[in-house]
Amino acid sequence: MQLDSPTTLDFFNASPSVPRDLLVWQHAIACLRAGIPVSLLLVVSSSGSSPGRQGFKMSVAPGSMVGSIGGGIMEHKFVELARHGLAEGPREVLLREQIHRGEAPHNRSGMICSGQQTLLLLPLHDDHLPTLRFVADALQHNRRAWLRCTAAGELHAEAGPLPTPAGLHRSADDAWEYREILGFREQLTIVGGGHVGLALSQVVANLDFRLTVLDDRTGLNTLQLNPYAHEKRTVDYAALDQVIAEGLHQYVVIMIFGYRTDGVALRQLLGRQFAYLGVMGSAAKIATMRKELRAEGYSEEQLARVHAPIGLPIHSRTPEEIAISVAAELIRARNAPRG
Questions:
Q1: Is 89 helix (H, G, I), strand (E, B) or coil?
Q2: What proportion of the chain, given as a percentage, has pLDDT over 90?
Q3: Could you tell me if 81 and 121 are in contact, meaning their C-beta atoms sit under 8 angstroms apart?
Q4: What is the end-to-end Cα distance of the chain in Å, rounded?
Q5: Residue 145: which residues within 8 A CB-CB, separation 6 or more?
Q6: Residues of the domain holding 70
Q7: Ranges for the XdhC- CoxI domain (predicted)?
Q8: CB neighbours of 57 closer than 8 A, spacing ≥ 6?
Q9: Around Cβ 10, how many Cβ atoms within 10 Å?
Q10: In 10 A of CB 180, how many CB atoms?
Q11: Where is the domain boundary, 128, 156, 181?
Q12: Can you tell me the distance from the alpha carbon of 5 to that of 87, in angstroms, rounded to the nearest whole number?
């Protein structure tokens, strides 16, 4: 069903989401400009069932804080540590491992979720302001950039792709540095800009994905009026392999109107590496599609990587219910341990 007029979607008054880290940097900038001492807390590595992934961060001032490093008693402990340092005057850069097991011989976090994290406490100073402003501006305008922190308390950011591997890097003399790609790490492409694509866009707008919506129909109302996508394009499904990049942080959902066009889109992407590749459809439709692809020579290994039918099995029927089931599956794929 096509929408009758643009006013049908007047209740969609959102704009494309920005990375949630932006508020952390803006808070830090505001504190420094007001002469208020502030520190950055940052998860520089994580493994297992840690409450906060690598890249989680927060800014902490004496009377305010923004962001999260995972919550719970561990976060509370580090917030208090940061605030104690702020009250003491000269402050040091701290890098501390936290093990979330009660039987751990040292560095116990007070949590028992079996993972572990390495946390950075970086006191911020006025000389950090140019970098903080650069980072906030890059996030606000969705520009590619990267960040580097060092044991000496340096904070540096530049535009463009990260030239070296991300993560925490230690050297033999106990020095270290941390590198991070700024902005959205995960990229979600929805192939199909109809009602379900619009509903999924709304759900994932708060899940820290950079969102692209593609459709081959010119003038499609639900695509034109989608306020959640960072990018919207009209493309030929037979050329998706030239439009969608592959990679470990690339997620693709195919939800097209029509069985044949589903197949055209999927054939362009099979055999490529994605964090998630899924196709919407009934069990009968998906079974037929898999049978045809096997007959064409696609391997069982290739077909096994496709999530189809997409979504967790919650008997969803409406576009909004389908969107929730698909978003839950995307979250599960994103948070699954990777070897």
A1: coil
A2: 63
A3: yes
A4: 44
A5: 134, 135, 138, 157, 158, 159, 160, 181, 182, 183
A6: 21-181
A7: 31-92
A8: 21, 24, 40, 41, 42, 43, 67, 69
A9: 9
A10: 22
A11: 181
A12: 58
Structure tokens at 248: 């470990």
Residue 175: phi and psi, rounded to 5, are -75, 160
Please tell me whether residues 100 and 243 are part of one structural domain. no
Q: Report the half-sphere exposure of 209 (CA within 13 A, side-chain side).
A: 29
pTM (2 d.p.): 0.74
The domain boundary, picked from 157, 181, 205, lies at 181
pLDDT band at 104 (very low <50, low <70, confident <90, very high): very low
pLDDT at 271: 87
Residue 4: what pLDDT? Answer: 34
Q: How far apart are the C-alpha atoms of 136 and 28, rounded to whole Å?
A: 10
> Please, which residues have CB within 8 angstroms of residue 331's CB and are 6 or more apart in sequence?
207
CA 57/CA 67 separation, integer angstroms: 6
Kindly state whether residue 4 falls inside one of the protein's structural domains.
no
Query: Do 140 and 52 belong to one domain?
Result: yes
User: What is the pLDDT of the chain when averaged over all its residues?
Assistant: 86
Buried b (16+ CB within 10 A) or exposed e, 122-143: bbbeeebeebbebbbebbeeee
Q: What is the pLDDT of residues 279-298, one digit of tens each?
A: 998 888 899 999 999 999 99
| DSSP class per residue in 115-170 | -EEEEEEEEE-GGGHHHHHHHHHHHHTT--EEEEEETT--EEEEESS-SS--EEEE
- The pLDDT confidence band at residue 229, using thresholds 50, 70 and 90, is very high
